[in-house]
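Fold it.
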Amino acid sequence: MQVVRIGLDLAKYVFEVHGVDSHGKVVVRKTLRRDAVARFFANLPRCLVGMEASNGAHYWARVLSDLGHEVRLISPQFVTPYVKSNKNDRNDAEAICEAVGRPSMRFVPPKSTDQLAIQAVHRIRRDAALPSSSGTTMTASATWSVRS
């Protein structure tokens, strides 16, 4: 059977993959190290890949899209109801796979590197303007450039 939908749970070093065919039968359940993820998806036929929206998810969405896969990011609050039992990476990957297949699910658009850079600048500015524990406001000035 051919994989049509994959749930990918991202972590620091080890990623969980849960894939199903068109009938919803599990055909792939795998644990991958970070360096093996791109190679695994490069050897897979095009399919729908779902991930929880997080910092690293935008990077992986770009990588997997470049390999020809359709990538959809889901806010973690919408994945939680699909976790069937104890919360662990394998069950999260299964829940993501289930959630990404729902027709009424809302998705988060992947951000480009430029959008992520601008977001980082806004966070630094916001954090620099927050009052410190001594009651004074920190100020910072810096020059930012975005790499293409």
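The helical segments are 37-42, 55-66, 76-79, 89-100, 113-129.
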